[in-house]
Amino acid sequence: MTDIALVTGGNKGLGREIVRQLAARGMTVYLGARDEARGREASAALRAGGDDVRFVRLDVTDPVSVEAAVLTVKAEFGRLDVLVNNAGIAGEVGTDVLAITADQLRTTYEVNVFGTVTVTSACVPLLRKSANGRIVNISSRLGSLTALSAPDSRQRERGALAYSSSKAALNVLTLLYAEALRADGIQVNAATPGRVPTDINAATPWRGDRTVSDGAVVPVHLATLAPGVMTGEFRGSGIEDSPGW
């Protein structure tokens, strides 16, 4: 039976590559994007290679669009096997920690935290219909308390207060969702793709030199787990390497 996947923020960068790799593995993948023109263009380009990629308009900050996207999946397949919460923003690049405002945190949290909750809550009923439900949350070492508290922490030096704290919150969501959905057999894990140059870090000095293909390896690995392999884990750029919560 073909797995059904939904990827948020799937029209460009890491999200698009995750969509491509999942579809290349034979999944039917819903490419969620808030911009309809860009989403349709991306899904059409990916379908041109013969993969089953379908666009759904999905803005994680808009519960109405989220519900409509989930209803589309329900009407067409009645279940969801994989949810990748990829949509995210980093709005405070270049701002000193002490100058970051509460409004900047609210804007970042609206996407990275509240958006993840909105999408996950809407998708859980369909994930429960799957024989092997999997949720993958795209996190970052910038949200790792282990990395941030290290004496020589490069993550702490970057001072990304809104982004880092939102990803730390996402890690907590991952752990608590993993526990809450354990009895349903739904595996919930977080992935950090490493330093992949994308729009989200375009204005930063830490863009890195990994490709989106490199960055998608761990999320795709977690999205294709066999039943009962792992849940509540935070996986880094090497499949066997966990950088710690």
Q: Pairing-aware structural class of the strands and helices?
A: alpha/beta
Q: Helical element count?
A: 8
Specify the overall morphology: globular
Reported by name, the CATH topology is: Rossmann fold
Strand order of the largest sheet: 3-2-1-4-5-6-7
CATH class reads: Alpha Beta
Can you put this structure into words, describing what you see?
The protein has a seven-stranded parallel β-sheet with strand order 3-2-1-4-5-6-7, with helices on both faces. By secondary structure, it is α/β, with parallel strands linked by helices. Helix 1 packs across helix 8 and helix 4 packs parallel to helix 7. It has helices at residues 13-24, 36-47, 63-76, 102-127, 145-149, 154-157, 161-180, 212-223, and strands at residues 4-7, 28-33, 53-57, 82-85, 134-138, 187-191, 234-235.
Task: Tell me briefly what this model is.
By secondary structure, the protein is an alpha/beta fold. Helix content is 43%, strand content 13%.
What is the element layout, followed by pairings?
Elements: E1 4-7, H1 13-24, E2 28-33, H2 36-47, E3 53-57, H3 63-76, E4 82-85, H4 102-127, E5 134-138, H5 145-149, H6 154-157, H7 161-180, E6 187-191, H8 212-223, E7 234-235
Parallel strand pairs: 1-2, 1-4, 2-3, 4-5, 5-6, 6-7
Helix pairs in contact: 1-8, 3-4, 4-7
Defining traits:
245 residues, alpha/beta, Rossmann fold, 7 strands, globular
